[in-house]
Amino acid sequence: MHWRAWSLPKKGHRPDEYEDAAAGDARRGRFAVADGASESSFAALWAWLLACEFVRAPLGGKRPWSAWLPPLREHWAQELVGRELPWYAEEKLQLGAFATLLGLVVGKARWRAVAVGDSCLFHLRTGRLLRAFPVSRSEDFGNTPGLVGSRTPPPQEVEQHQTRAQGKWQPNDRFLLMTDALAQWFLRQSEEGHKPWEAVGGLLDEAADDADFASWVEGLREREALRNDDVTLVAVDLSVEA
Amino acid sequence: MSYAAEISRTNPTCFLFLVDQSGSMAKPFGGEAGKIKAQGVADAINRLLQNLVLKCAKSDGIRDYFYVGVIGYGARVGPGFGGALADRGLVPVSEIANKPLRVEQRTRKADDGAGGLVDQKFKFPVWFEPTADGKTPMCKAMNVATQAVFQFIKRFPGCYPPMVLNITDGMATDGNPEAAAAGIRSLPSQDGNVLLFNAHLSSRAERPIEFADKEQGLPDDFARLLFRMSSVLPPPLQAAARSEGFKTGPATRGFVFNADLVSVVRFMDIGTKAASGVR
Protein backbone atom coordinates (compact mmCIF):
# COMPACT_ATOMS: atom_id res chain seq x y z
CA MET A 1 0.00 0.00 0.00
CA HIS A 2 1.37 3.43 -0.99
CA TRP A 3 0.01 6.82 -0.17
CA ARG A 4 0.74 10.41 -1.08
CA ALA A 5 -0.67 13.69 0.15
CA TRP A 6 -0.68 17.15 -1.39
CA SER A 7 -2.00 20.45 -0.17
CA LEU A 8 -2.30 24.07 -1.20
CA PRO A 9 -3.71 27.05 0.71
CA LYS A 10 -6.50 29.18 -0.62
CA LYS A 11 -5.33 31.68 -3.25
CA GLY A 12 -4.28 34.93 -1.59
CA HIS A 13 -3.51 33.14 1.69
CA ARG A 14 -0.12 32.36 3.21
CA PRO A 15 0.97 28.75 3.84
CA ASP A 16 0.53 29.30 7.60
CA GLU A 17 -3.11 30.22 6.94
CA TYR A 18 -3.89 26.78 5.50
CA GLU A 19 -6.51 25.11 7.73
CA ASP A 20 -6.96 21.63 6.23
CA ALA A 21 -5.05 18.64 7.53
CA ALA A 22 -4.09 15.21 6.20
CA ALA A 23 -2.58 12.22 7.97
CA GLY A 24 -1.94 8.60 7.09
CA ASP A 25 -0.18 5.44 8.15
CA ALA A 26 0.10 2.74 5.47
CA ARG A 27 1.20 0.05 7.94
CA ARG A 28 -1.95 0.58 9.97
CA GLY A 29 -4.13 1.19 6.90
CA ARG A 30 -5.55 4.39 8.37
CA PHE A 31 -5.92 7.73 6.56
CA ALA A 32 -7.73 10.97 7.29
CA VAL A 33 -8.37 14.46 6.01
CA ALA A 34 -9.97 17.29 7.97
CA ASP A 35 -11.05 20.77 6.92
CA GLY A 36 -11.00 23.58 9.48
CA ALA A 37 -14.01 25.89 9.13
CA SER A 38 -12.89 29.30 7.90
CA GLU A 39 -15.23 31.21 10.21
CA SER A 40 -13.81 29.57 13.32
CA SER A 41 -10.44 30.34 14.92
CA PHE A 42 -7.69 27.93 15.94
CA ALA A 43 -9.20 25.56 13.37
CA ALA A 44 -5.93 24.45 11.76
CA LEU A 45 -4.78 22.99 15.08
CA TRP A 46 -8.14 21.28 15.58
CA ALA A 47 -8.18 19.81 12.05
CA TRP A 48 -4.65 18.51 12.55
CA LEU A 49 -5.48 16.95 15.92
CA LEU A 50 -8.58 15.26 14.47
CA ALA A 51 -6.74 13.78 11.47
CA CYS A 52 -3.79 12.57 13.56
CA GLU A 53 -6.02 11.07 16.25
CA PHE A 54 -7.98 9.12 13.65
CA VAL A 55 -4.82 7.68 12.16
CA ARG A 56 -3.16 6.73 15.43
CA ALA A 57 -6.32 5.23 16.99
CA PRO A 58 -6.01 1.68 18.31
CA LEU A 59 -6.61 -0.95 15.66
CA GLY A 60 -9.72 -3.03 15.96
CA GLY A 61 -13.39 -2.15 15.99
CA LYS A 62 -15.06 1.24 15.86
CA ARG A 63 -14.42 3.52 18.81
CA PRO A 64 -17.36 5.55 20.07
CA TRP A 65 -16.81 9.32 19.79
CA SER A 66 -17.37 9.62 23.52
CA ALA A 67 -14.20 7.56 24.10
CA TRP A 68 -11.80 9.81 22.22
CA LEU A 69 -13.38 13.20 21.53
CA PRO A 70 -13.33 14.60 25.11
CA PRO A 71 -9.58 13.97 25.64
CA LEU A 72 -8.81 15.39 22.20
CA ARG A 73 -10.83 18.51 23.03
CA GLU A 74 -8.86 18.83 26.25
CA HIS A 75 -5.64 18.53 24.24
CA TRP A 76 -6.80 21.35 21.93
CA ALA A 77 -7.72 23.58 24.90
CA GLN A 78 -4.41 22.86 26.66
CA GLU A 79 -2.46 23.93 23.58
CA LEU A 80 -4.10 27.35 23.82
CA VAL A 81 -4.40 27.86 27.56
CA GLY A 82 -2.85 30.86 29.29
CA ARG A 83 -2.54 33.07 26.23
CA GLU A 84 -3.25 36.76 26.60
CA LEU A 85 -5.74 37.37 23.83
CA PRO A 86 -7.68 40.37 22.53
CA TRP A 87 -11.47 40.26 23.12
CA TYR A 88 -12.30 38.83 19.68
CA ALA A 89 -9.74 36.00 19.86
CA GLU A 90 -10.94 35.14 23.36
CA GLU A 91 -14.52 35.05 22.10
CA LYS A 92 -13.57 32.80 19.20
CA LEU A 93 -11.58 30.57 21.53
CA GLN A 94 -14.65 30.18 23.73
CA LEU A 95 -16.80 29.38 20.70
CA GLY A 96 -14.32 26.67 19.80
CA ALA A 97 -12.86 25.54 16.50
CA PHE A 98 -14.76 23.45 13.96
CA ALA A 99 -13.63 21.02 11.26
CA THR A 100 -14.92 18.28 9.01
CA LEU A 101 -13.39 14.83 9.35
CA LEU A 102 -13.12 11.99 6.87
CA GLY A 103 -11.39 8.80 7.97
CA LEU A 104 -10.59 5.66 5.98
CA VAL A 105 -9.54 2.29 7.38
CA VAL A 106 -8.23 -0.30 4.93
CA GLY A 107 -8.28 -3.80 6.35
CA LYS A 108 -7.89 -7.24 4.86
CA ALA A 109 -10.03 -7.24 1.72
CA ARG A 110 -12.45 -4.70 3.24
CA TRP A 111 -12.47 -0.99 3.90
CA ARG A 112 -14.61 1.26 6.05
CA ALA A 113 -14.94 5.02 6.30
CA VAL A 114 -16.50 7.58 8.59
CA ALA A 115 -17.36 11.18 7.78
CA VAL A 116 -18.70 14.28 9.44
CA GLY A 117 -19.12 17.02 6.86
CA ASP A 118 -18.19 17.21 3.22
CA SER A 119 -14.60 15.99 2.90
CA CYS A 120 -14.94 13.14 0.43
CA LEU A 121 -13.69 9.65 -0.34
CA PHE A 122 -13.60 8.25 -3.88
CA HIS A 123 -13.03 4.54 -4.58
CA LEU A 124 -11.60 3.83 -8.04
CA ARG A 125 -11.12 0.57 -9.90
CA THR A 126 -9.82 0.03 -13.45
CA GLY A 127 -10.62 3.54 -14.59
CA ARG A 128 -14.06 3.65 -13.02
CA LEU A 129 -15.49 5.51 -10.04
CA LEU A 130 -17.02 2.81 -7.85
CA ARG A 131 -18.12 4.91 -4.92
CA ALA A 132 -18.27 8.53 -3.75
CA PHE A 133 -18.76 9.11 -0.03
CA PRO A 134 -20.36 10.93 1.80
CA VAL A 135 -21.34 13.42 -0.93
CA SER A 136 -22.23 11.93 -4.29
CA ARG A 137 -23.51 14.97 -6.25
CA SER A 138 -21.58 18.18 -6.93
CA GLU A 139 -24.68 20.29 -6.23
CA ASP A 140 -24.84 19.01 -2.66
CA PHE A 141 -21.90 21.07 -1.39
CA GLY A 142 -22.68 24.20 0.61
CA ASN A 143 -21.07 26.40 3.22
CA THR A 144 -22.78 24.77 6.21
CA PRO A 145 -21.41 21.20 6.27
CA GLY A 146 -21.51 18.98 9.35
CA LEU A 147 -18.62 19.85 11.66
CA VAL A 148 -16.87 18.43 14.69
CA GLY A 149 -16.33 21.19 17.26
CA SER A 150 -13.47 21.47 19.70
CA ARG A 151 -15.93 22.39 22.49
CA THR A 152 -19.38 21.47 21.24
CA PRO A 153 -21.58 19.59 20.54
CA PRO A 154 -21.66 16.62 22.96
CA PRO A 155 -20.03 13.48 21.46
CA GLN A 156 -23.35 11.66 21.17
CA GLU A 157 -24.61 14.49 18.95
CA VAL A 158 -21.50 14.24 16.73
CA GLU A 159 -22.18 10.51 16.56
CA GLN A 160 -25.66 11.25 15.20
CA HIS A 161 -24.22 13.47 12.45
CA GLN A 162 -21.62 11.02 11.26
CA THR A 163 -22.11 8.85 8.20
CA ARG A 164 -20.36 5.54 7.63
CA ALA A 165 -19.59 3.45 4.57
CA GLN A 166 -17.83 0.18 3.91
CA GLY A 167 -17.00 -2.16 1.09
CA LYS A 168 -14.52 -4.58 -0.42
CA TRP A 169 -11.31 -3.64 -2.17
CA GLN A 170 -9.08 -5.45 -4.66
CA PRO A 171 -5.39 -5.08 -5.47
CA ASN A 172 -4.81 -2.12 -7.82
CA ASP A 173 -7.80 -0.19 -6.43
CA ARG A 174 -7.18 3.45 -5.57
CA PHE A 175 -8.76 5.62 -2.87
CA LEU A 176 -8.75 9.40 -3.04
CA LEU A 177 -9.54 11.57 -0.03
CA MET A 178 -10.25 15.24 -0.72
CA THR A 179 -11.47 18.34 1.03
CA ASP A 180 -14.61 19.92 -0.38
CA ALA A 181 -13.49 22.28 -3.16
CA LEU A 182 -11.50 19.61 -5.01
CA ALA A 183 -14.17 16.97 -4.30
CA GLN A 184 -16.83 19.22 -5.83
CA TRP A 185 -14.70 19.71 -8.95
CA PHE A 186 -14.09 15.95 -9.11
CA LEU A 187 -17.79 15.11 -8.93
CA ARG A 188 -18.80 17.80 -11.41
CA GLN A 189 -16.23 16.54 -13.91
CA SER A 190 -17.48 13.01 -13.43
CA GLU A 191 -21.11 14.11 -13.89
CA GLU A 192 -20.12 15.80 -17.16
CA GLY A 193 -18.71 12.54 -18.46
CA HIS A 194 -15.05 13.37 -17.88
CA LYS A 195 -12.59 11.21 -15.98
CA PRO A 196 -11.08 13.51 -13.35
CA TRP A 197 -9.28 10.55 -11.75
CA GLU A 198 -7.02 10.47 -14.82
CA ALA A 199 -5.67 13.94 -13.99
CA VAL A 200 -5.11 12.84 -10.40
CA GLY A 201 -3.54 9.60 -11.67
CA GLY A 202 -1.19 11.70 -13.77
CA LEU A 203 0.05 13.44 -10.62
CA LEU A 204 0.80 10.05 -9.09
CA ASP A 205 2.43 8.59 -12.22
CA GLU A 206 4.68 11.61 -12.57
CA ALA A 207 5.56 11.55 -8.88
CA ALA A 208 4.37 15.15 -8.78
CA ASP A 209 5.81 17.26 -6.01
CA ASP A 210 4.03 20.07 -4.18
CA ALA A 211 5.02 22.61 -6.84
CA ASP A 212 3.51 20.42 -9.61
CA PHE A 213 0.37 20.01 -7.56
CA ALA A 214 0.20 23.76 -6.93
CA SER A 215 0.45 24.60 -10.61
CA TRP A 216 -2.24 22.03 -11.47
CA VAL A 217 -4.63 23.44 -8.83
CA GLU A 218 -3.86 27.03 -9.82
CA GLY A 219 -4.70 26.13 -13.42
CA LEU A 220 -8.10 24.82 -12.33
CA ARG A 221 -8.69 27.96 -10.25
CA GLU A 222 -7.76 30.22 -13.15
CA ARG A 223 -10.27 28.43 -15.38
CA GLU A 224 -12.79 28.90 -12.53
CA ALA A 225 -13.31 25.15 -12.47
CA LEU A 226 -12.31 25.08 -8.82
CA ARG A 227 -13.68 27.20 -5.97
CA ASN A 228 -10.99 29.20 -4.18
CA ASP A 229 -10.45 27.25 -0.95
CA ASP A 230 -7.73 25.29 0.81
CA VAL A 231 -7.13 22.09 -1.18
CA THR A 232 -6.01 18.75 0.21
CA LEU A 233 -5.66 15.46 -1.62
CA VAL A 234 -4.61 12.06 -0.30
CA ALA A 235 -4.16 9.16 -2.72
CA VAL A 236 -3.95 5.59 -1.42
CA ASP A 237 -2.83 2.95 -3.90
CA LEU A 238 -3.56 -0.67 -3.19
CA SER A 239 -1.13 -1.79 -5.84
CA VAL A 240 0.03 -4.72 -3.71
CA GLU A 241 -1.72 -6.82 -1.10
CA ALA A 242 -2.35 -4.54 1.86
CA MET B 1 -24.21 35.63 -11.56
CA SER B 2 -24.27 38.78 -9.47
CA TYR B 3 -23.90 38.96 -5.68
CA ALA B 4 -21.36 36.17 -6.02
CA ALA B 5 -18.03 38.01 -5.81
CA GLU B 6 -15.56 36.41 -3.47
CA ILE B 7 -15.04 38.49 -0.33
CA SER B 8 -11.32 38.51 0.45
CA ARG B 9 -8.59 40.76 1.76
CA THR B 10 -7.74 41.84 -1.78
CA ASN B 11 -11.41 42.24 -2.71
CA PRO B 12 -13.18 43.39 0.46
CA THR B 13 -16.73 44.63 0.74
CA CYS B 14 -18.10 47.38 2.96
CA PHE B 15 -20.76 47.89 5.58
CA LEU B 16 -21.88 51.45 6.15
CA PHE B 17 -24.24 52.12 9.04
CA LEU B 18 -26.49 55.14 9.13
CA VAL B 19 -27.50 55.80 12.70
CA ASP B 20 -30.38 58.01 13.70
CA GLN B 21 -29.24 60.13 16.67
CA SER B 22 -32.11 62.62 16.63
CA GLY B 23 -34.06 63.86 19.65
CA SER B 24 -36.99 61.54 18.91
CA MET B 25 -34.73 58.61 19.74
CA ALA B 26 -35.10 59.52 23.42
CA LYS B 27 -38.66 58.11 23.32
CA PRO B 28 -39.43 54.62 24.64
CA PHE B 29 -38.46 51.64 22.46
CA GLY B 30 -41.42 49.36 21.71
CA GLY B 31 -39.15 46.39 21.15
CA GLU B 32 -37.93 46.26 24.74
CA ALA B 33 -39.69 47.59 27.83
CA GLY B 34 -37.77 50.12 29.91
CA LYS B 35 -35.42 51.09 27.09
CA ILE B 36 -35.30 54.21 24.93
CA LYS B 37 -34.85 53.93 21.18
CA ALA B 38 -31.36 55.48 21.31
CA GLN B 39 -30.31 52.64 23.62
CA GLY B 40 -31.91 50.16 21.21
CA VAL B 41 -29.84 51.70 18.40
CA ALA B 42 -26.62 51.63 20.41
CA ASP B 43 -27.21 47.96 21.33
CA ALA B 44 -27.97 47.12 17.70
CA ILE B 45 -24.88 48.81 16.33
CA ASN B 46 -22.59 47.39 19.01
CA ARG B 47 -23.87 43.87 18.27
CA LEU B 48 -23.46 44.40 14.53
CA LEU B 49 -19.91 45.67 14.88
CA GLN B 50 -19.04 42.84 17.26
CA ASN B 51 -20.37 40.23 14.85
CA LEU B 52 -18.60 41.78 11.87
CA VAL B 53 -15.32 41.61 13.79
CA LEU B 54 -15.91 38.03 14.95
CA LYS B 55 -16.68 36.99 11.40
CA CYS B 56 -13.19 38.14 10.38
CA ALA B 57 -11.31 37.06 13.53
CA LYS B 58 -8.73 34.29 13.16
CA SER B 59 -6.18 32.94 15.58
CA ASP B 60 -3.51 35.26 14.20
CA GLY B 61 -5.63 38.43 14.13
CA ILE B 62 -8.32 40.05 12.03
CA ARG B 63 -8.59 39.58 8.28
CA ASP B 64 -9.77 42.73 6.57
CA TYR B 65 -12.64 41.23 4.59
CA PHE B 66 -14.76 44.28 5.43
CA TYR B 67 -14.44 48.02 5.61
CA VAL B 68 -16.87 49.50 8.08
CA GLY B 69 -18.18 53.01 8.61
CA VAL B 70 -20.80 54.75 10.68
CA ILE B 71 -22.58 57.97 9.78
CA GLY B 72 -24.58 59.48 12.60
CA TYR B 73 -27.43 61.88 11.85
CA GLY B 74 -29.07 64.18 14.37
CA ALA B 75 -27.76 67.52 15.55
CA ARG B 76 -24.98 66.89 13.01
CA VAL B 77 -24.37 64.54 10.09
CA GLY B 78 -20.98 62.89 9.89
CA PRO B 79 -18.70 60.08 10.97
CA GLY B 80 -20.24 58.50 14.06
CA PHE B 81 -17.38 56.66 15.72
CA GLY B 82 -15.94 57.96 18.96
CA GLY B 83 -12.60 57.48 20.70
CA ALA B 84 -9.62 56.56 18.55
CA LEU B 85 -11.86 56.23 15.47
CA ALA B 86 -13.45 59.68 15.78
CA ASP B 87 -13.97 61.47 12.45
CA ARG B 88 -12.93 58.40 10.43
CA GLY B 89 -15.02 57.27 7.44
CA LEU B 90 -14.75 53.70 6.19
CA VAL B 91 -12.07 51.86 8.18
CA PRO B 92 -10.72 48.29 7.89
CA VAL B 93 -12.51 45.94 10.27
CA SER B 94 -9.20 45.22 12.07
CA GLU B 95 -9.17 48.81 13.30
CA ILE B 96 -12.77 48.48 14.50
CA ALA B 97 -11.71 45.35 16.39
CA ASN B 98 -8.80 46.98 18.11
CA LYS B 99 -10.27 50.39 18.87
CA PRO B 100 -13.56 50.10 20.76
CA LEU B 101 -14.46 52.88 23.20
CA ARG B 102 -14.13 50.37 26.02
CA VAL B 103 -14.30 46.64 26.71
CA GLU B 104 -16.65 45.56 29.53
CA GLN B 105 -16.40 42.32 31.47
CA ARG B 106 -19.74 40.45 31.47
CA THR B 107 -21.02 37.00 32.42
CA ARG B 108 -23.26 34.65 30.45
CA LYS B 109 -24.49 31.06 30.57
CA ALA B 110 -22.55 28.82 28.22
CA ASP B 111 -22.73 25.22 27.03
CA ASP B 112 -20.25 23.09 28.98
CA GLY B 113 -19.86 20.63 26.09
CA ALA B 114 -21.57 17.86 28.04
CA GLY B 115 -25.16 19.07 27.85
CA GLY B 116 -25.03 21.40 30.88
CA LEU B 117 -24.57 25.14 31.45
CA VAL B 118 -21.76 27.03 33.16
CA ASP B 119 -21.19 30.71 33.96
CA GLN B 120 -18.71 32.13 31.52
CA LYS B 121 -16.99 35.49 31.74
CA PHE B 122 -16.53 37.31 28.48
CA LYS B 123 -15.36 40.66 27.18
CA PHE B 124 -18.01 42.88 25.65
CA PRO B 125 -16.70 45.71 23.47
CA VAL B 126 -18.64 48.97 23.19
CA TRP B 127 -18.16 51.41 20.32
CA PHE B 128 -21.36 53.34 20.64
CA GLU B 129 -23.14 55.24 23.38
CA PRO B 130 -26.80 56.25 23.04
CA THR B 131 -27.26 59.75 21.60
CA ALA B 132 -30.55 61.63 21.05
CA ASP B 133 -30.30 65.23 19.97
CA GLY B 134 -31.57 67.46 17.17
CA LYS B 135 -33.63 66.77 14.06
CA THR B 136 -33.53 63.79 11.66
CA PRO B 137 -31.66 64.78 8.49
CA MET B 138 -31.98 61.34 6.90
CA CYS B 139 -31.81 62.65 3.29
CA LYS B 140 -28.52 64.37 4.04
CA ALA B 141 -27.19 61.20 5.68
CA MET B 142 -28.19 59.19 2.59
CA ASN B 143 -26.30 61.64 0.38
CA VAL B 144 -23.17 61.42 2.55
CA ALA B 145 -23.47 57.61 2.40
CA THR B 146 -23.77 57.70 -1.40
CA GLN B 147 -20.48 59.59 -1.63
CA ALA B 148 -18.68 57.20 0.75
CA VAL B 149 -19.92 54.09 -1.04
CA PHE B 150 -19.16 55.60 -4.45
CA GLN B 151 -15.54 56.15 -3.38
CA PHE B 152 -15.30 52.59 -2.05
CA ILE B 153 -16.56 51.11 -5.33
CA LYS B 154 -14.11 53.26 -7.25
CA ARG B 155 -11.32 51.69 -5.20
CA PHE B 156 -12.69 48.10 -5.35
CA PRO B 157 -14.77 47.93 -8.56
CA GLY B 158 -15.16 44.14 -8.44
CA CYS B 159 -16.30 44.06 -4.81
CA TYR B 160 -19.27 42.23 -3.41
CA PRO B 161 -21.82 45.07 -3.45
CA PRO B 162 -21.51 47.34 -0.38
CA MET B 163 -24.26 47.20 2.20
CA VAL B 164 -25.77 50.30 3.74
CA LEU B 165 -27.74 49.66 6.93
CA ASN B 166 -29.96 52.47 8.17
CA ILE B 167 -31.16 52.25 11.77
CA THR B 168 -33.90 54.78 12.57
CA ASP B 169 -37.35 55.49 13.96
CA GLY B 170 -38.24 56.62 10.46
CA MET B 171 -39.17 60.26 10.94
CA ALA B 172 -36.97 62.18 8.44
CA THR B 173 -37.20 65.96 8.92
CA ASP B 174 -35.40 67.09 5.75
CA GLY B 175 -37.80 65.77 3.14
CA ASN B 176 -38.81 62.44 1.65
CA PRO B 177 -35.72 60.18 1.70
CA GLU B 178 -37.06 57.78 -0.99
CA ALA B 179 -35.19 59.46 -3.85
CA ALA B 180 -31.90 59.52 -1.92
CA ALA B 181 -32.43 55.86 -1.05
CA ALA B 182 -33.03 55.01 -4.70
CA GLY B 183 -29.78 56.85 -5.48
CA ILE B 184 -27.82 54.61 -3.13
CA ARG B 185 -29.47 51.45 -4.50
CA SER B 186 -28.61 52.45 -8.06
CA LEU B 187 -24.83 52.49 -7.41
CA PRO B 188 -23.28 49.42 -9.05
CA SER B 189 -20.14 47.43 -8.48
CA GLN B 190 -19.29 44.87 -11.17
CA ASP B 191 -21.06 42.30 -8.97
CA GLY B 192 -24.38 44.10 -8.48
CA ASN B 193 -26.03 47.18 -7.03
CA VAL B 194 -25.46 48.50 -3.52
CA LEU B 195 -27.86 46.99 -0.99
CA LEU B 196 -29.82 49.23 1.36
CA PHE B 197 -31.27 47.68 4.50
CA ASN B 198 -33.47 49.50 6.98
CA ALA B 199 -34.09 48.65 10.62
CA HIS B 200 -37.09 50.50 12.00
CA LEU B 201 -37.03 50.94 15.77
CA SER B 202 -40.44 52.10 16.87
CA SER B 203 -42.11 53.17 20.10
CA ARG B 204 -45.02 50.91 19.16
CA ALA B 205 -45.00 47.69 21.13
CA GLU B 206 -45.80 45.69 18.01
CA ARG B 207 -44.37 42.26 17.31
CA PRO B 208 -40.99 42.33 15.53
CA ILE B 209 -41.01 41.81 11.76
CA GLU B 210 -37.93 40.43 10.01
CA PHE B 211 -37.48 40.70 6.25
CA ALA B 212 -40.95 41.79 5.18
CA ASP B 213 -42.24 41.06 1.69
CA LYS B 214 -45.13 43.53 1.44
CA GLU B 215 -46.19 46.96 2.69
CA GLN B 216 -49.60 45.73 3.71
CA GLY B 217 -49.68 44.77 7.34
CA LEU B 218 -46.76 47.00 8.37
CA PRO B 219 -47.70 49.01 11.46
CA ASP B 220 -47.45 52.62 10.23
CA ASP B 221 -46.49 55.03 7.45
CA PHE B 222 -42.86 55.23 8.61
CA ALA B 223 -42.50 51.47 8.41
CA ARG B 224 -44.06 51.45 4.94
CA LEU B 225 -41.73 54.25 3.80
CA LEU B 226 -38.65 52.40 5.06
CA PHE B 227 -39.88 49.20 3.43
CA ARG B 228 -40.12 50.97 0.07
CA MET B 229 -36.62 52.38 0.55
CA SER B 230 -35.13 48.91 1.20
CA SER B 231 -33.50 46.70 -1.44
CA VAL B 232 -35.26 43.60 -2.64
CA LEU B 233 -33.03 40.72 -1.52
CA PRO B 234 -31.17 39.32 -4.55
CA PRO B 235 -31.60 35.54 -4.99
CA PRO B 236 -28.30 34.53 -3.29
CA LEU B 237 -29.26 36.58 -0.21
CA GLN B 238 -32.78 35.14 -0.22
CA ALA B 239 -31.19 31.70 -0.15
CA ALA B 240 -28.81 32.71 2.65
CA ALA B 241 -31.72 34.13 4.66
CA ARG B 242 -33.73 30.95 4.13
CA SER B 243 -30.83 28.83 5.37
CA GLU B 244 -30.86 30.99 8.52
CA GLY B 245 -34.53 30.16 9.05
CA PHE B 246 -36.22 33.24 7.56
CA LYS B 247 -39.16 32.93 5.18
CA THR B 248 -38.17 34.70 1.98
CA GLY B 249 -39.54 35.06 -1.53
CA PRO B 250 -38.83 37.11 -4.64
CA ALA B 251 -40.45 40.23 -3.06
CA THR B 252 -38.64 40.05 0.29
CA ARG B 253 -36.84 43.26 1.21
CA GLY B 254 -34.03 44.10 3.58
CA PHE B 255 -36.40 45.66 6.11
CA VAL B 256 -36.92 44.78 9.77
CA PHE B 257 -39.25 46.33 12.35
CA ASN B 258 -38.31 46.44 16.06
CA ALA B 259 -35.71 43.80 15.28
CA ASP B 260 -32.00 43.94 14.57
CA LEU B 261 -30.06 43.26 11.40
CA VAL B 262 -27.35 41.06 12.93
CA SER B 263 -28.51 38.18 10.73
CA VAL B 264 -27.31 40.15 7.68
CA VAL B 265 -23.75 39.58 8.88
CA ARG B 266 -24.41 35.86 8.82
CA PHE B 267 -25.66 36.05 5.25
CA MET B 268 -22.16 37.04 4.08
CA ASP B 269 -20.14 34.17 2.71
CA ILE B 270 -16.46 34.20 3.58
CA GLY B 271 -16.09 30.41 3.71
CA THR B 272 -17.30 27.50 5.80
CA LYS B 273 -19.60 28.75 8.52
CA ALA B 274 -18.97 27.62 12.06
CA ALA B 275 -21.99 26.14 13.81
CA SER B 276 -22.39 29.06 16.20
CA GLY B 277 -20.15 31.73 14.77
CA VAL B 278 -22.44 34.66 15.31
CA ARG B 279 -24.17 35.72 18.50
The main sheet of chain B comes to: 8 strands, mixed
Envelope shape of chain B: globular
SSE run of chain A: EEEHHHEEEEEHEEHHHE
User: What is the overall pLDDT average of chain B?
Assistant: 89
- Using only C-alpha atoms, the radius of gyration of chain B works out to 18 Å
Report, as a whole number of angstroms, the end-to-end distance of chain A: 5 Å
Overall outline of chain A: globular
Spell the H/E element sequence of chain B.
EHEEEEEHEEHEHEEEEHHEH
List unreliable stretches of 5+ residues of chain B.
none
Assign the structural class of chain B, choosing from mainly alpha, mainly beta, alpha/beta, alpha+beta, or little secondary structure. alpha/beta
How would you characterize the largest beta sheet of chain A? 6 strands, antiparallel
Mean pLDDT over all positions of chain A: 93
The CATH topology of chain B is given as Rossmann fold
Reading off the top of the CATH hierarchy, the class of chain B is best stated as Alpha Beta
SS field, number of helical segments of chain B: 7
Number of strands of chain B: 14
Label the structural class of chain A: alpha+beta
Describe the structure.
The complex is a heterodimer of chains A (242) and B (279). By secondary structure, chain A is α+β, with helices and mostly antiparallel strands. Chain A has 7 helices and 11 strands. The longest helix of chain A is centred in the N-terminal third of the chain and has 16 residues. Chain A is globular, with a radius of gyration of 17 Å. The model of chain A has no long low-confidence stretch (mean pLDDT 93). Chain B is of the alpha/beta class. Chain B has a single domain, classed as Rossmann fold (3-Layer(aba) Sandwich). Chain B contains 7 helices and 14 strands. In chain B, the strands form 4 sheets. In chain B, strands 1, 4, 5, 6, 9, 12, 13 and 14 form an 8-stranded mixed β-sheet that branches. In chain B, strands 2-3 form a two-stranded antiparallel ribbon. In chain B, strands 7-8 form a two-stranded antiparallel sheet. In chain B, strand 10 and strand 11 form a beta hairpin.
